[in-house]
């Protein structure tokens, strides 16, 4: 059993609830009221008994296929051009049509390293939020070259490159009715990009709130922690390097046209640090890989975030190490709340025995729904749900998974 722990500023930001007579409450009071999976007697995570440490949780997450429930997530793809001639694939759920006059609150999703909209950690959340009784909209930003998208220019993405997110958010705003509420959520590498962007933008962001899940926060320290152990070097780091090589290998000819990288050096990388040294730092004009890691780390930007931000991290995460969490910077910022669990691994948080499902769907859904309900501008809004109704619906959906889900 793992009790959820919260860390935050002593004087959290105040939120004005326009849909409840302009009532004003602090961020932590609002979370306590609408997020029982984060505060109170139900704020407990019970890991699957045979996934009793971070390595097992992380390994299970890597092979978890998430057999679809009756709420299968279907996407419609749209391509967004970037100023440098590249393109980004957006996957809308449930549809990309007829958005101009639709004020439905919309979730903007950023995936992890070499991931995409197909990832189970994304679909398990969208199968809840984009279906009744919630009926919200979601759009997943697939980074360049991810989710079967094309790289058209000698430009890739990185954990510290936020310009593509700016392009995507500007495009989304144009596609939707004016003032449609937007909330962002990022997973792993995507959470670092999101938090760094929020810190850079401050009050200029169109996002009303955001969620960071399994954020590594400090790239330099994360890499040092990975290299300290055999499993870190030979399993996690090596696997991530291979994933990057597989993802970008088909685009190496295009990427090499910029004259910054040597394809043979990139493909010879055996660890993620070696890949970043041969490719990422050169692509983004850093003199050393450590300079890239320092500049990209969202721990440097989190104290400047100006919208409500929930961060969720597991203390036994072998990739986003607990030592990298910037507690002091988080407590400095009244807009940020950090929730930690002792167990959960990296993007795991599996519970139940026979057919494990992700516990994280409950606190994430509670917070996102609470933020949407606080900012919903529709004259005819969806049903206002209390936390118990949210959790009951999540249970109903997850309980439909009745087939083995590890391939």
Automatic annotation (TrEMBL):
MF GO annotations: acetylesterase activity; monoacylglycerol lipase activity
UniProt domain AB hydrolase-1: residue ranges: 105-347
Name of the molecule in the record: AB hydrolase-1 domain-containing protein
Secretion signal span: none
Biological process annotations from GO: medium-chain fatty acid biosynthetic process; medium-chain fatty acid catabolic process
Active site: 188 (charge relay system), 317 (charge relay system), 346 (charge relay system)
Family: Belongs to the AB hydrolase superfamily. AB hydrolase 4 family.
Species in which this protein is naturally found: Parasitella parasitica
Gene: PARPA_05156.1 scaffold 16505
Pfam family, one: Abhydrolase_1
Superkingdom to which the source organism belongs: Eukaryota
